[in-house]
Predict the 3D structure of the following.
Amino acid sequence: MNKGKIVFFCGKMGAGKTTKSKSVANDLNAILLSEDEWLASLYPNSIKSLEDYVKYSNLIKPQLKKLVQDILSVGSNVVMDFPGNTVSQRNWFKEIYSEIDASHELIYINVSDDICLAQINKRRSQQPERSATDTVEMFHNMARYFEAPDVNEGFNVKIVGQNA
């Protein structure tokens, strides 16, 4: 049986990863998994800082890895609205697909900081519950850790956005 394809994203906070993930999932008739939804459901009101995010994100990854591998193994596509913004985050995705020999695509949303900040501001007004974490300060804090994908990492990368 053919395995499904996993699609995941790289882009700074506010770049449009969630919006793009929904569109790609629809186009591929794929199962969409959202880290924000999983974290909010499993750990409601628990993420107040970057440290909280890292802690809880790492707690769900082992179970999600197995779930995604099972879905891919039966031939269904999976779109993961989880950040692949650092080498270590991308390595987790690589483990998922390489361990079962599934195909993948990394979509790098390459837009300016100004666009990211404008989109964060818009999101904050549309989703007031995110106002504590969707801030200019959090953007700059997260951006310090951002690492654009490098050709030497070995991913099938599709670059989208104004700076593509």
Q: What stands out?
A: The radius of gyration is 15 Å. Residues 43 and 56 are 8 Å apart (CA to CA).
